[in-house]
Amino acid sequence: MDFELTEEQKLFRDTMRVFVDREIRPVAAEWEASGRYPEEIVATMRELGLFGLTVPERFGGLAVDLVSFAIVFEEISKAWMGIAGILGSHSLSCWLLARHGTPEQQERYLPDLAAGRRRTGIALTEPDAGTDLQGIRATARRDGDDYILDGRKTWITNARHADPLPVLCKTDPAATPAHKGMSVLLVEAGTPGFEVLRDLPKLGYKGTESCEIVFDGVRVPAANLLGGVEGRGMQQVLSGLEIGRINVAARALGIAQAAYDAALAYAGQREAFGQKIGEFQAIQLKLADMAMRVQSSRLLVHWAASRADAGHRVDLEAGMAKAYASEAAVECALLSMQVHGGYGYSPEFGVERLYRDAPLMMIGEGTNDIQRIVIARALLGGKGRIG
């Protein structure tokens, strides 16, 4: 059992750190506060080929292993988690296309998506359906060579830039169980009736947009049905969400690591009562707890990624990594704020942003309550073995 990164993975991590230190860290606080969209950072990610993380090499992508995939999201999230969101939804959508798309769909979209000439996201959540995807109301009825798509989606990352946008909908609303009537349609930007209504305000996770969108009689060519077969949408999406949870877990790990790094550095600099605050046991206990949570999270994330790379189903492993790392991120952000005292409450030190970003990781890609149910069912069903 090897807990070390390969030399190639270490080199990849070092490249990401240089990019983050040069392009993201210096501007994160100012741009996040002003609501400025990070066009320059997106351009550099395009040059680095990061939009092709999950795209096969034959289409011009990087096709990185999933440990390297996790490294990307960890390193970016240390500096500004919102930037990781721009890549996250895009990478998940590309993964779906690469594994479930028809050859024609792959040839049409993947080369441009890998190069960043096109970008994408994924439209799942609705105002009345988040975790319960079978409860969505968006429908698409067949009309000759097209589908007519109607519905509303919310909290959609990259909605203003997605082309195409995969949309989960019901092509057979009467199907029982409901998932047998669900499909994914690839909706191209500019299609009449497809409208982004507004950007939703958020506590954190800024830098990328989260939008409410509407589909009003949108004509989508039948050739844009993902995989070319109706009724497979739920299975396609759920297979992608396993990888999405590794992405979210890695983002949470980045937040936890950044919170710990900031607290450790501050504890070695700040003085009170004639000594460094790191010499007080109360501070030492917080640092120890943070270090344990960070390293435990990293091992879980890399374990889930390695299992996925080996071709295993990873709903158990990814669920564990996502639930544990996201809660570690929230705990570490709060502990770091406590170590910093009043300065932790100020945007000047960056810990305040970590504190605002962390809670989303417990919600996104399936709430942690749902992750625990998934984990327990896998254990009870004999599909997961611990020890």
What is the CATH architecture descriptor of the largest domain? Up-down Bundle
Distance between the termini: 14 Å
Q: Please report the total strand number as a whole number.
A: 8
Give the number of domains: 3
Poorly predicted sequence stretches spanning 5 or more consecutive residues = none
CATH homologous superfamily assignment of the largest domain: Butyryl-CoA Dehydrogenase, subunit A, domain 3
Molecular structure report:
It is a single chain. The chain has 387 residues and is α+β, with helices and mostly antiparallel strands. The protein has three domains: 7-115, Butyryl-Coa Dehydrogenase, subunit A, domain 1 (Orthogonal Bundle); 133-229, Beta Barrel (Butyryl-CoA Dehydrogenase, subunit A, domain 2), CATH 2.40.110.10; 235-380, Butyryl-CoA Dehydrogenase, subunit A, domain 3, CATH 1.20.140.10. Helix content is 51%, strand content 13%. The protein has eleven helices and eight strands. Strands 1-2-6-5 form a four-stranded antiparallel beta sheet, with helices on one face. A two-stranded antiparallel sheet has the order 3-4. Helix 4 (66-79) packs across helix 7, helix 5 packs antiparallel against helix 6 and helix 8 runs antiparallel to helix 9 (315-340). The longest helix is centred in the middle third of the chain and has 35 residues, at 233-267. The mean pLDDT is 96.
